[in-house]
Amino acid sequence: MRLRSFAEAIREGLEQALADDPRVCVMGPGVPGPTGIFGTTRGLAERFGPERVMDMPSSEQAMTGFALGATLDGYRPVIVHMRVDFAVLAMDQMVNQVAKWHFMYGGRLRAPMVFRLIVGRGWGQGPQHSQSLQAWFAHVPGFKVAMPASPRDAKGMLVAAIRDDSPVVLVEHRWLYGITGDVPEELYETKLGEARVARPGRHATVAATSHMVIEALRAAERLAPLGIEVEVVDMRSLVPLDADTLCASVARTGHLVVADTGTIAFGAGAEIAAVATERAFAHLKKAPVRIGLPHFPSPTTPALADAFYPRAVDIERAVAGLVGLDPARLPVEEPPHGPWRDTPDPSFKGPY
Amino acid sequence: MRLRSFAEAIREGLEQALADDPRVCVMGPGVPGPTGIFGTTRGLAERFGPERVMDMPSSEQAMTGFALGATLDGYRPVIVHMRVDFAVLAMDQMVNQVAKWHFMYGGRLRAPMVFRLIVGRGWGQGPQHSQSLQAWFAHVPGFKVAMPASPRDAKGMLVAAIRDDSPVVLVEHRWLYGITGDVPEELYETKLGEARVARPGRHATVAATSHMVIEALRAAERLAPLGIEVEVVDMRSLVPLDADTLCASVARTGHLVVADTGTIAFGAGAEIAAVATERAFAHLKKAPVRIGLPHFPSPTTPALADAFYPRAVDIERAVAGLVGLDPARLPVEEPPHGPWRDTPDPSFKGPY
Amino acid sequence: MGGPAPLPDLFASMLRIRRIEEAIAKRYPEGEMRCPVHFCIGQEAVPAAICAQLARTDRVFSGHRSHGHYLAKGGDLRAMLAELYGRETGCARGRGGSQHLIDLEAGFVASAPILAGTIPIAVGAALSATWRKSGSVSVVFFGDGATEEGAFHESMNFAAARRLPVLFVCENNAYSVHSAMEGRQPAGRRIADMAKAYAMASAHADGNDAAAVWNAGAIALDHVRKGNGPYLLEFDTYRWLEHCGPNPDDALGYRTPAEIDAWRRRCPIEKLRRDSVPGAAEERALEARIAAEIDAAFAAARAAPFPDPRDLGAFVHPARS
Amino acid sequence: MGGPAPLPDLFASMLRIRRIEEAIAKRYPEGEMRCPVHFCIGQEAVPAAICAQLARTDRVFSGHRSHGHYLAKGGDLRAMLAELYGRETGCARGRGGSQHLIDLEAGFVASAPILAGTIPIAVGAALSATWRKSGSVSVVFFGDGATEEGAFHESMNFAAARRLPVLFVCENNAYSVHSAMEGRQPAGRRIADMAKAYAMASAHADGNDAAAVWNAGAIALDHVRKGNGPYLLEFDTYRWLEHCGPNPDDALGYRTPAEIDAWRRRCPIEKLRRDSVPGAAEERALEARIAAEIDAAFAAARAAPFPDPRDLGAFVHPARS
Ligand SMILES: Cc1ncc(C[n+]2csc(CCOP(=O)(O)OP(=O)(O)O)c2C)c(N)n1
Ligand SMILES: Cc1ncc(C[n+]2csc(CCOP(=O)(O)OP(=O)(O)O)c2C)c(N)n1
Ligand SMILES: [Mg+2]
Ligand SMILES: [Mg+2]
After folding, report:
1. Quick one: average pLDDT of C223-238?
2. Quick one: which atom of ligand 1 is closest to the CA of C147?
């Protein structure tokens, strides 16, 4: 076991990719700065220089075009947005140009770019700093969309994204950054488009994305003593979507809960549920249940945020409903590690 | 019967709304121009003056903020984008500000705005002029999203949108503009959030949006002689989504085809299918089928565009699959009215 | 408005902002104000000397570093602190936090953290003010970083094209988070010069000299109020604390100790104190008044109720008016 | 490159563009070129006189009105016409149409109709050219309307901040579709002046005078090539036909007959002809050569195969290189 945090895994992946291929470069406001995007780019500018690890003005739209232009000389830029919300300013270049670049010039150009979008959450990130818009990018033809949930996948999928000739949107949830796991030392790829059975089970499938995988695993753990074996499928990638792994699991369990970090309505969970229904209808004993954010903007006050974000208990309740378990038998939720549930772990002490 | 085209209905709705309420104003590049946004704003500047029917620089992002700022003085701006694709440049203001405006200031502000987004199609509109991104807006909490498919609804929903205190995105498909129907003369509202059974039927439900309602009605017409009665539900509005009308229909027919003008993957159809599955699972005899655009950018050449856009035949095939009709028995598709199928009607002669 | 700078009033306003920010910084580590906070300590002269020249009906907009603008414009302190504490009595009912301050009574319309996000909105308010002939002026505060956003350019272009009553105020503290100007913006070019792209009037002044800010503001506001169109003001100033949060960040190394020191010596409040505005006794009384106000506001904020989780869905869609 | 304007060459280039555009306009109503087309008739001097000073390795970008830039940079005529005809032999294999021209061999990288969309991309290409030390210059053409987009500002700011080898070329034809300048941009301000916001060099010249364009371009390119940073050129010119499509639109009334007339008299090709560049015999030979080339290219385009509908999903995701 080589324990590394999710943030360290990203940093290591970036560092090795930069060392491995001189065409790789990383850019964004604050990328070479002293705090290094929550540590994920720390020290890289010192090693690779300010051209390959490049600061940028706050010009999200044009920055995207700058990176796209650099692909003409063979570069493979990684753009970092500290919050998904800032990428919203870059939608024209991302969606109208980058995603269609290869197609609209009949294959004569390519846009081998990576967009690292960080989902903010907690400590009052509020309406403009905590959107989780993966469904948007997945909806746009031309992008691949990856959502690693473990340190190993964070590194492997980042490397795979960098080496992919399609533009890849990598959605990184801020609450995963402190989570640790085994991370191989060498440079490796985790193939994009393959889901992973994170925990096998027989009674219900929970197909989860990003940080909701953590919550799903918690729920599975807590349901196990009740004799309910939940299979957790870490979707890992929205585009390509691994319908085979998803549907094979549903075929085994007959039940599906989809848990996504974004807004439920018109969200990634709708696609996952629709695909499972289309492909495994005969196996479904009940309708799939979706878990995610209600159709409201993110509130800032923890008094509302705690009610806004779904957690393991919500998954437990959904599974109970599907398998016919009396919800009264569900274990009581663990108390928060602080006064509120708006921090990922007890070590977290204030503003990002 | 007072026959008016879809475009005339919009124009009439705008004119009456402007006359009815001095706080209403319309803005966008070309809005007061001689061609008046495909006729939908023609003559309005002459009647109401250049302040209330206002030209704008090509600054989609800031223009949205200008309109939002004007709401502080009680104005109710209607913004017009000649193509959905241009609104992509305004996503920051639309999504980060307008949609959240009421919420993030604790209800102290409102953004009573309308966004008229026109979906381009045909005659080589191509990758950057034919996106149909309603799923994006529907995904963002705070917006209402309406997609009228008939002249009557175009006028009524536009008026309802203008009078609504939420920001409303009105998606207008360019291929509907020439379609005619009965349009009442007076100023009236068509309530947002109510689907409409456009044609009753017993054997399968086709839930369609915007121009796909026309294709669905065509399919229903052509299936009727085979004894297959298709119920066409014109969804009309994505947010609020009328799950009751949708599910009541599915409960009657046991079969659902969802036909949307956008990309299937992570699109509006996924939500409609997911909601129907959640609420009417017991009634569904087979999995819902989704029809829409493949996960590719829009090609320009008609040789590919004709294969890219689904039509009545595709709906017919889907219904046949659900009700167990041998597809060989389906009627042959009518020939196109020109060399290709890339124009809405024979009168159409070249560039928009 | 107009006339020589009312230095004692500006001093009082600046000192009040400083003491409020210090009080927030002191209590922030208690972990009860659970939202990102961007302090304006060291930058108090600009908000004070500009907002003092505004009528209640003039409308102010700001970005992430907005406490000073809110307070100087007359925003309610209790409502602001309650907002930071996430309470239902907060100015945005807890939904927005420090980055979404609002006090419509005071003419402080909105702050929002998306860079340059409120700039076009301020321009729109100026546009409708001309429709209404209300005489109201829009003032929007933003940092040097925000000028890199396209929306700023689009806003200036339109405001100039329509000669709208907007005052653009850039607080140039030379950093965008930890990034110095170099590489972000052209060397040797003042932000005030960006106005030339739109044939717009502009000026640059020392943002830590309240009198200089006042004078530049007076000229600019006179220009704007007379219908001569928008105006861009650039003020040099310096942020003392970390970009976000209550601590100094000298240790991070992106700013040299010499630079930090030099700017601390250019404290805008010290400057007025050195100029004997006001006398020591007056200042003591002022301090006491401010302290009492702050204590009461904190007590009220901390005693106020949190929003009810059952109201999570409130204010998403307004009821029809 | 450099030196006095090679007027006969420019005349030939301009005449060729004009004749090609006329041929497209003539055949357009046949309904076989099924995509929006923005003609540059009347505006040929700028593409011709700028592109003539570029090396093959210099990279050109354009917007919706791009035929002239593509042709002047040496883009393949057959591939362009095949693209308009939606054929597999088109420069973008029919996927893009008139608005997505490309010829990498000729250094014409890309045109795209989203306003200002290719401007940051051109800047990015200049950035990587400096990394590669390739000496390649980026040239991006756009209209007056495109300068209203924020991306243009963000691009100029960055190009100036990093002193990148980019030539920004604005073809100011005074209209954005049917909208005149008034209300869109500040009165009495030249677009060339926008460069002042970034301490960037700029110039303005008559865009219908090929020699003037050449001279302004020579100075600008010299500046850019010497590593002095970006340069903004503004050229006044005029579009003869409707915004999109092959017909005049005089009847729409947004441009006065007097204005249209005056500009038609300022035809850039007529001007060179009046200056006796070239002689009549030479011109007849030139016309014949161009006509033959055009005929052959149309014949080839119309004979070429359409893309196979089974390839609808090609080029969405590239195979790994
Ligand atoms: C669109 C957008 N991009 C990035 C950010 C992250 N961000 C927050 S504050 C800031 C720096 C702003 O610098 P400046 O405008 O100079 O204001 P200052 O913090 O110096 O007062 C950045 C980049 C943001 N809030 N919004
Ligand atoms: C982002 C965006 N907004 C709007 C349009 C619609 N549009 C196409 S061309 C055009 C006018 C452009 O004017 P200008 O840049 O001056 O170029 P010209 O057509 O005069 O050559 C507009 C508004 C667009 N293509 N892209
Ligand atoms: Mg700053
Ligand atoms: Mg123009």
Report:
1. 98
2. 15
Closest CA to A231 of A262, A260, A264, A196: A196
pLDDT computed for residue B102 by the predictor: 98
* Of residues D161, D186, D188, nearest to C183 (C-beta): D161
Say if CB C95 and CB B106 are below 8 A apart.
Answer: yes
Per-residue 3-state assignment (H helix, E strand, C coil) for C197-226: HHCCEEEEEECCCHHHHHHHHHHHHHHHHC
* pLDDT higher than 90, residue A299: yes
Residues in chain C: 321
Check whether B107 has a pLDDT greater than 80.
yes
Q: Is D97 in the pocket of ligand 2 (CB under 6 A)?
A: no
Under an 8 A CB cutoff, do D95 and B128 touch?
Answer: no
Q: Are A166 and D131 within 8 A, CB to CB? A: no
D189: contact with C, CB 8 A cutoff: yes
Contacts with C183 from chain D: Cβ below 8 Å:
161-162
Asked if residues D19 and D294 have their Cβ atoms less than 8 Å apart, the reply is yes
Condensed to tens digits (0 to 9), the pLDDT of residues A249-269 reads 999 999 999 999 999 999 999
pLDDT digits (tens, 9 = 90+) for A126-162: 999 999 999 999 999 999 999 999 999 999 999 999 9
What totals of helices (H) and strands (E) does chain A contain, helices first?
Answer: 13, 14
Which residues, 6 or more positions from C279, have their beta carbon under 8 angstroms from its beta carbon?
Answer: none
**The pair of three-digit structure tokens given for residue D263, joined into one six-digit string:** 């500009």
CATH class of residue range A196-329: alpha beta
Which residues, 6 or more positions from D85, have their beta carbon under 8 angstroms from its beta carbon? D32, D33, D301, D302, D304
User: Across all residues in chain A, what is the average pLDDT?
Assistant: 97
pLDDT cut 70: percent of chain B above it: 99
Whether chain B has a CB inside 8 Å of the CB on D31: the answer is yes
If we measure between CA atoms, which residue out of A311, A128, A177, A349 comes closest to residue C33? A349
Given this model, what pLDDT does residue C276 score?
84
pTM value is: 0.98
Type of residue found at A73: D
Instruction: Find where tokens 């990719």 sit.
Output: A17
How far is Cα C265 from Cα C258, in angstroms, rounded to an integer?
11
pLDDT in the model for residue C41? 98
Please give the pLDDT value at position C1.
Answer: 54
| Active-site residue flag, B15 | no
What residue segments make up the domains of chain A, in order of their start?
Answer: 3-182, 196-329
Q: Are B107 and A299 in contact (CB under 8 A)?
A: no
| C-alpha dihedral (A59, A61, A66, A68), degrees to nearest 10 | 160
Q: Are D91 and A106 in contact (CB under 8 A)?
A: yes
- Crossing angle of helices C280-303 and C7-27, in 10° steps, is 40
Give Cα separations from D287 to D13, D17, D55, D122, D297 (angstroms). 11, 11, 26, 34, 15
- pLDDT of C320 > 80? The answer is no
How would you classify residue A170: left for phi > 0, otherwise alpha for psi between -120 and 50, otherwise beta?
Answer: beta
Q: What is the pLDDT of residues D234-293, one digit of tens each?
A: 999 999 999 999 999 999 999 999 999 999 999 999 999 998 888 899 999 999 999 999
Give the whole-angstrom CA distance, residue A246 versus residue D226. 58
| Spans of chain D below 50 pLDDT | none
Select the residue of C157, C185, C188 nearest D157 (Cβ to Cβ).
Answer: C185
How far apart CA D84 and CA D39 sit, in angstroms, is 13
Q: Where are the domains positioned within chain C?
A: 7-304
Fold of D7-304: Rossmann fold (3.40.50)
Q: How confident is the model at residue A350 (pLDDT cuts 50, 70, 90)?
A: low
**Nearest ligand by distance to the CA of C39:** 1
Residue A165 to residue D151, Cβ atoms within 8 A: no
User: What homologous superfamily is domain A3-182 in, according to CATH?
Assistant: Thiamin diphosphate (ThDP)-binding fold, Pyr/PP domains (3.40.50.970)
